[in-house]
């Protein structure tokens, strides 16, 4: 018996595991580079070489850069290690080639009902006192009490019971 023993995996299983390792490895290197601070020419060259070696597409690369740029942990580390203003080159590197299309407002069977409920709640909220007027006597502590307003909504000849919590 030889060591290490081979697992019972098909060729397709091996390809899937290898691809996952490639993607995770690229993501880890990019995350480390982001945490180090600025995106230098040397880092760009290494990332380009890794893209070619690991078959990472340009869109995948840009998505990974956007993920790393928006990560609070990496931004904090970069700020504490390299100082402020370390994101500009990363933002340029991660920009989208084709901007996202604006999305339409979704229309569902419940859109009318949801709008009615939202309007009713907005009217109730308008009657509530301003937050600055709800402070306790000491000026800093807030005392909340909860009132439950039952609201009946009719939808397709059925009564739906909706409980609305209002903080006053």
UniProtKB/TrEMBL annotation:
<protein>
    <recommendedName>
        <fullName>ENT domain-containing protein</fullName>
    </recommendedName>
</protein>
<dbReference type="Pfam" id="PF03735">
    <property type="entry name" value="ENT"/>
</dbReference>
<dbReference type="GO" id="GO:0006355">
    <property type="term" value="P:regulation of DNA-templated transcription"/>
</dbReference>
<dbReference type="InterPro" id="IPR005491">
    <property type="entry name" value="ENT_dom"/>
</dbReference>
<keyword id="KW-0539">Nucleus</keyword>
<feature type="domain" description="ENT">
    <location>
        <begin position="14"/>
        <end position="98"/>
    </location>
</feature>
<dbReference type="GO" id="GO:0005654">
    <property type="term" value="C:nucleoplasm"/>
</dbReference>
<dbReference type="InterPro" id="IPR036142">
    <property type="entry name" value="ENT_dom-like_sf"/>
</dbReference>
<dbReference type="InterPro" id="IPR033482">
    <property type="entry name" value="EMSY"/>
</dbReference>
